[in-house]
């Protein structure tokens, strides 16, 4: 299954959290980031949590981190 790579989705949020040096904290938005409802980890399916992890790990593998 391909991860949902849309803006605000679990994969996107995992990668963004890694990129910006935020803690690993699975979540996603129902639509665009900050413009729709936030779904925290307790409201996520197992698959959505795995998508978040995949986004985080892909960014980590690529060394994708913001330099402040």
Q: Could you please describe the fold and organization of this structure?
A:
It contains two helices and two strands; from the N terminus they run αββα. With 68 residues, the protein is mainly alpha-helical. It has one domain. A two-stranded antiparallel ribbon has the order 1-2. The longest helix has 16 residues. It is globular, with a radius of gyration of 11 Å. It starts with 9 loop residues before the first helix and ends in a 7-residue tail after the last helix.
Average of per-residue pLDDT values: 94
Low-confidence stretches: none
Compute the number of structural domains.
Answer: 1
Query: Which series of helices and strands comes N to C?
Result: HEEH
Helix-residue proportion: 25-40%
Principal-axes geometry comes out as globular
Main sheet specs: 2 strands, antiparallel
Topology overview:
Layout: H1 10-19, E1 27-29, E2 38-40, H2 46-61
Helix pairs in contact: 1-2
In a nutshell, what does this entry contain?
The protein is mainly alpha-helical and 68 residues long.
Notable traits:
68 residues, mainly alpha, two-stranded antiparallel sheet, 2 helices
